[in-house]
Amino acid sequence: MEAVLSRMDDVNATVSIMAAEGCEEMSGNGELEESSAMEASEVPASPPTEMVKMSEENGSAADVHEVHEAPEAPVDPHPETFSMPLAAEDEEGELPADFERLWKAAHDNPQDFTSWTDLLQYCEQESHVTASRRALEAFLVRYPLCYGYWKKYADLERRAGYNDKAEEVCIQGLQVIPLSVDLWIHYINLLLGTLDMNLPESPVRIRRVFEDAVQAAGLDFHSDRLWDLYIEWEKEQGNMKNATAVVDRVLKVPTQLYNTHYEKFKEQLNSQEPKEILPPEEYEELRASCRQSQKAERAEQAQEEEAERPPGEEEPATPEGTDTEELMQKIREQVLLRRDKVYQDNEGEVRKRWHFEDAIKRPYFHVKPLDRLQLRAWHSYLDWEIAQLSSDTKESDQDPNQAASEGSEVTAQPQEAPEDAAVARDDYRVRILFERCLIACALYEEFWTRYTQYLELQSVDEARAVFKRACEVHLTYKPNIHMHWATFEERHGDLTEARRVLEALEKTLPGLAVVRLRRAALERRAGQLDQSEALLREAVAESKEKPTLHAFYSIKLARLLLKLGRNPSRARRVLQEALEISPDNDKLHMNLLELEVSGDPWASAEAVQECVTRALAAPLTPDTKILFSQRGLQFAEDYSNSIQSVLSVYDEHQKLLQELGGTKRGAENGDEDPEKLIKSDDGSAVAVSGTAPPTMPHVPITTPPPPVMGADMSAQTGYGGYSNWYQQPQYGSYGYQNTWNYNQGYYPPS
């Protein structure tokens, strides 16, 4: 243990020196990258070929970072109420000269990770305890997954003589990242260096912390160092039987260095008496069975010897109740035989996971983005682990049905227990993998959302805790995950919490339109139509300085008043007021026209034409103006009471076409080139004009038909031509419907 403590102190000293010199070879956790030569002797055994390949590529097991901090619900390694350590009184006077400048830079842009690391390195270089404490506290609130800085903070307090505060810092860090093997080891070494081991309660406390550590992080694929430390500590305490019990537990856990635990156990078994390292029950059981087997062998051998013994010679006496070396060897063989099956099964589990683990190159947290291959590797690993759980669940569901069909409830019960245990074990492994993933991928919403979807099927409260952790700690500026959370709360009936989530998001990201619309929609679904309207009116009032956003909110408010409030006059007033601010916004004109068109056709005829006139007078594009004119013409055709009014509107439309260049008519009839000639069946070219030749040429459907000879030319040309080209496909939609489809994909999947 002294060697372990010495090694940890050496590493910490090296970290401090390199940080003071401005070294940049640190990960985002504040830790030095470990050398590939540090643990070269701990390379896993060779049976799986994938393992050999990984070891050759990485150089050693130490190249794979052994830190996986999963921000699970608090795991209290020491059952005491905990709060953030209070800063000690400033015994050092004023802060360093550049502290305020670096502090301000970090707080002005809290998402700039470099500003924070500059501040922390400066404080460490200045060796100013108060400044370092203040900077570390602020930094760890924003980046709690950087386990290396928790260790730095604990070391700072320890060097300053505040051992209790150092323990509190470690405990708080482990509440945030209970999967951090390195932080657990640091905490345990801190206790080993500060507790008086002569007191009877000290070993009890250390053992309790070890148990909390392996419970929280023992299933991590890189947790071997934690298990080894636990086993060696028990040996140092002289508790060989406890050490064997820990070995038996780790032999069932698929870890990177799984084979080393078994090899060390074999060495220990061969170097000591089985009675000293085995549990009493197991030893007595094996001793009795081996002695019985040995006795049977001796009896058979005695019969053979008696047949050959000379007459009158007696059988030599053998001492009863003594354990020979031969018996001890048989016991050792049985001990290994029992554990070989467990070891082989565990090796199979390791082999299944090895290529997934090999694909993960950055298992620790960093603000730098991950490449697509890394994200895909995590998704693939999660898919596989969940599939393992699903297969066990199916098997668990089938056996009870088969037992019920046979009418044997008594025999079904013992079959369910192992399968249920397997399902629970696989579920725990899935959760551990999710937590590991959420360390490396903490800044990616997709993984948080996937985890909540997995947990929601089992526990709403657990899913809610993950949402809370994601939104309030790691993804405070990512709106999608917050809206997922609000949708989750609304789906489960907690409207108050859904409101709170959206309100908090809007305070964090003010001016985000989708959040305000979510709030309005939530109130509408809750039956609070007045509150929904109030939210939209507030948004309209606050966005007057931003014409585009103001028009957007105005359209939404008008839509609410028209469709749900059944109040066209109020909706009309909203759009008209918006047009005073943004007269060049074609969507406002189009929605106002749609409002008028959707009313009573006879009562709204004048209002429709007024809308068209307003749009034509506005600074809109020529194509948009033609669109409005065409829409007014369609309305007149559909609902006008007299042909004169239709012709009047049509004449205005023709004048507009001529005013906008005289060539728009050909384009809207489907001809790309208005000067294009139409060829007749005999190959002669015919110009499209108001005067037609005596014989009717073949004319495309999008071209107005020629007038009938002898008829009223003005009436025939105008109305006849209009009625044909008006009904062509390009005029089947006038755009006003698309203005409402701005929010396709508005709600994220839930």
Automatic annotation (TrEMBL):
InterPro entries: HAT, HAT_PRP39_C, TPR-like_helical_dom_sf. Residues 25-52, 284-326, 391-420, 660-700 are annotated as: Disordered. One of its GO terms (cellular component) is commitment complex. SUPFAM superfamilies: TPR-like (SSF48452). GO terms for molecular function: pre-mRNA 5'-splice site binding. Coiled coil: none annotated. It is found in: Nucleus. GO terms for biological process: mRNA 5'-splice site recognition. It comes from the Eukaryota. Keywords: mRNA processing, mRNA splicing, Nucleus, Repeat. Residues 399-414 have a biased composition (Polar residues). Residues 302-326 have a biased composition (Acidic residues). PANTHER family: PRE-MRNA PROCESSING PROTEIN PRP39-RELATED, PRE-MRNA-PROCESSING FACTOR 39-LIKE ISOFORM X1. This is Pre-mRNA-processing factor 39-like. It comes from Sparus aurata.
